[in-house]
């Protein structure tokens, strides 16, 4: 007959194993904020010491509903939640491990002090204590014992809330190094938090704000929903899965061409101008919290054709298991039935992105400037088009009139060769296939050089220069570049 024995894990080894789950500073911080949101907080403050001369810590203070003594003990218990249990739709947790594993991945001491109807109480997981006792030994503190901890006065001024403190950082070196590292990591984390929680930060009905050392974090909206001249949105679609009452909600967005976006819009996106390409893909949300983005879930590769496409996917927390959500809430794998629906939707969205980008190839310039277009393009069918030089353009005609008969013959032969050998197949393939970048510095420099040549070559005909600038998409849209070149040439002329 078999014999059953209880075999608990070694406390020290288990804690160190959980520290190595792969949290970065910013993902760990986001995991802590999830708990504050679940506690119905409307404000969260992240606080660090102002100088390197002080003992270094990171404090996270919220005005949520706080925890009683019993609730605090339950929150400090590892794996204190059943991941398959039903939860409120606003509950961003799952495994009951996030606060502990995220925190102890960054430091050796995690202190949690909470204020509720039963007053102020605290608890601490200390790796030094666990190593000393070789057991799951939790330090607990009375209200008077909590008075020694940083930022406790902020918590006391609240009706209710929770103060979480990271202390005893063991990866940053001495106090000065720790201060510099915290400052750098926190600065990097700001953009991450602004994107991950952008919906909550933009929610007017249920206000939520994050402050870092007194400065509020503005949301970074990947769809430009709140911005004038933002993305073109498609109607929301719902995907129902057998066995679940709530649907998956899908909504597509097509960004304006990047040259038509202002610097404010680009900043609001949460990505720089050079990373528009990398930010394309699905944006998967769970409870208004962004958990996964910038990827097409292996349904297709990143490509130039799709770089303006963003697809928002809202997944209810009841589907965590079938989406294979991990502890860090950084990996999500849609089930097969959902993948098929998303693939169909993706095809529609990419075609919208293609139209915006391909339209710039032949639909350039105002009607009154059509005679100054360089190319005449004729669409023959899917991925088929012919290209001809616009011989009616003003500059073409002016050049032709300046040539003698022999020069005209050679010029005509050369332009015919340009048309004949126009690399249409290569253009199509480059447009459709994956590309590592969108608009590079070298491309920008080439455009600048061409612009200089045009302006210098036609300096005696300013009206023609202006007309050409307006009728060329790359020049007309890039107002900043055009202005810089004009100022540069004006300066050289003055000299």
Keywords:
495 residues; 3 domains; alpha+beta; elongated; six-stranded mixed beta sheet; Heat Shock Protein 90; eight-stranded mixed beta sheet; Ribosomal Protein S5, domain 2
Describe the structure.
The chain is of the alpha+beta class and 495 residues long. It contains 17 helices and 16 strands. The longest helix has 27 residues. The termini are far apart. About 6% of the residues have low confidence.
What is the number of domains?
Answer: 3
Q: What is the CATH topology of the largest domain?
A: Heat Shock Protein 90
- Low-confidence region ranges: 89-95, 360-369, 433-443
Strand order of the largest sheet: 5-4-3-6-2-1-7-8
Q: CATH superfamily membership of the largest domain, which one? A: Histidine kinase-like ATPase, C-terminal domain
Number of strands: 16
CATH class of the largest domain, please?
A: Alpha Beta
What is the name of the CATH architecture of the largest domain? 2-Layer Sandwich
Structure classification: alpha+beta
Give the fraction of residues assigned to helices. Answer: 25-40%
Give a quick account of the main beta sheet: strands, pairing sense, barrel closure. Answer: 8 strands, mixed
Contiguous helical run count: 17
Q: In percent terms, what proportion of residues is strand?
A: 15-25%
Q: What is the oligomeric state here?
A: single chain
Query: What integer is the average pLDDT?
Result: 79
Shape: elongated
First-residue to last-residue Cα separation: 100 Å
- What's the alpha carbon Rg, rounded to whole Å? 30 Å
